[in-house]
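Would you mind giving me a polypeptide sequence along with per-residue structure tokens?
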Amino acid sequence: MTEIDFYELLEVERTADDKVIKSSYRRLAMQFHPDKNPGNHEAEAKFKAISEAYDCLKDPQKRAAYDRFGHAAFRQGGAGAGQQQGFEGFSDIFESVFGDFMGGGRQQRGGPRRGADLRYDVTISLEDAFHGKTETVVIDVAANCELCEGTGAKPGTSARTCQTCAGHGKVRAQQGFFVIERACPTCHGAGQVIADPCPGCRGEGRVDKEKTLEVKIPAGVDEGTRIRITGEGEAGGRGAPAGDLYIFLHVKRHAIFERDGTNLAARCPISFTTAALGGEIEVPNLDGEVITVKIPIGIQSGKQLRHRGSGMPVLNGRGRGDLVLEIAVETPTKLSARQKELLQQFRETETGEECPASTGFFDKLKGMFGE
């Protein structure tokens, strides 16, 4: 019988972390689940194979054994057989050495598992990030079956304790050097057996459902901000607690403003006359306020002017960042005859002291060539 590598079954690298392995398993399990492939024996066999692979790789001790010995680690008489069995397995070794120190005692394992967490991505504008908003999200989620109230049993009946594992959800078997703990083959880890399954959910206790939620997005959120909504993930199996829903926020680029932490930055073009003579300009901000900014005489392109307290709100805090304007002096491209005449008159009165940077630059060039 050909034994397919567990990592290959789950379509992950051998160096994959627990999160990647879990994500790949969930994707494949949904693809090959018998309920989605009725009558397809190949899909059913694939589902069982990937479930066995995940059952091994999700457990650090089992995964370590598999990485070292492969499938032989789980066969009677496999690698390491004949060596002295001082403990029942790696978990027993850990509990024997560290159990008392960590609080002692073997914990009850098995039973219905908590529902999976879900992720939902929301894209908002910079204005929404500034003011905050309430976003309506619609998600497809595995929710508790209303007919059986999540128990998986037909109304009027109840589940009974699994006789194979005595309700623990796991069984142990001696396999070579190791004593391996696996999900009970009878109850599949639930610890209970349903003799008369609910017709609404086929004994799963959960059904696919579309759920609409109102999510409050606070003012001051940024790209990548995560909002956790407790208990709005997938329902747990047969009455177990639900997982959580995580909202990941993405902020669209703004046509004018850029964000730098709690500061807002913008490139602000001004006329060359305003730059030369100074003055005031009015800048509309994200909150609708029109900010008056004083322009000092002789300001140059690239100079930054800061207006305190006019930036983004501090998330879950008080105050705001600053508004930073980077000045860009604009040279006129369309001049009337009168404007050209006035500029010509100005040029005739120039002494070189009006623009010391440009005068100094050309003087340095002349010095390089000995002029």
Summary: Residues 116 and 243 are 5 Å apart (CA to CA). The domain at 258-368 is CATH 2.60.260.20 (HSP40/DNAj peptide-binding domain).
